[in-house]
Structures are given as structure tokens and as C-alpha cells.
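So, is this right?
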Amino acid sequence: MTRFKNKYRIESTRFQDRDYGNAGFYYVTICTHDRIHHFGEILAGKMQHSLAGKIVVEEWHRAVDIRPNVQMDEWIVMPNHLHLVVNILYKIDGQSRPAPAKDNITANASKKWHGVTLGSIIGQFKRACTIRIKTAGYDDFRWQPRFYERVLHTPRQIHIARRYTINNPMNWRKDRNNPPNLYM
């Protein structure tokens, strides 16, 4: 572990040579702090969203709607986490190209809400959810710091991530994010 200003800091889990604004598929998992069930519950293999869960659903739709370079693929909101298969693309004259490294997707876009890197998309999404969820009365709501991500390089990897996401509610009893399974 390295130090910054004489304090330990956690190293980045991101690949140092990867530009996370590049076009491509990413598999993302975002968890609540301490895996607390804020988003609802699984009943008969189906997710039943709480108010907080419905807010997360609405904010994910909004996050994609305001970014023309982000496509929603498979995704699921679980009781204490969510899985997203995200496709970042950048089109110029109908051609898919790598997104620019800076938050300047369009000349009239607000830099604050239209980030084009995976980190800025997820960070802004988490912030918007937190504001709305706390306003809705979930005073103890917090996200786990950071998020897990994996770059999906092949069609097979994309297929596996999609299938895992779709089947996640049916496999909840065995899920590692289900609190009874955390320390097994």
C-alpha cells in the first residue's frame, strides 16, 4: 500500500493502461454499504423493488437517457446490489468510435452530467441515487465505496455476463452478495 500525505491510501483497481472512456462492453457490480437490503427483496425468484429500488431503476434509465454514448444492455437491481452490462460507444457520422478521454461529449452538454468514462457514469449515477434515496427517507443509505468492473472483450464474455445478470434473482439463495453467504 502506498501513502499520500503520510496516510495510507487504497490503490486503484482499474487497469493503468485502459482508457475507461473507450468504446466497449463493461460488466459492473455496485453494492450498498455493508450489503444492507435497501432495494427490496426476492420473492419466488423475482425482484420486488422497494421505493429505494424503484429510484435506482429510474436513475439508471436517466443515466443512459442523458448520455447518447451509453447503451443499456442487461441489468438487474437486487436487494443490496446491482449488476449492469454497459456498452459505451461513441458515434461520429454514424461510425462507432472510442469516446473522447475528457467529459466533452457534445458542445452543448453539461460536463457535470454527461461524463463519458465508466467511472464518471457510475459516480454520477450513484450520487443521483443517493440524493433521491436519502430524500425519500432512507437516512442510513450509503453505497459501498467504489464498484467492481470487468471489461468484456469477446461475445462469449458478453453472453455469460448477460446470462448471469438475468438469472441473478433465481440464484439469490446462493449469491455471494446475499448476507447469509458473505462469510462462507
Q: What stands out?
A: The beta strands are 2-4, 7-9, 24-31, 40-43, 46-49, 70-77, 81-88, 90-92, 95-97, 148-152. The chain has a mean pLDDT of 79. The chain has one domain: 18-172.
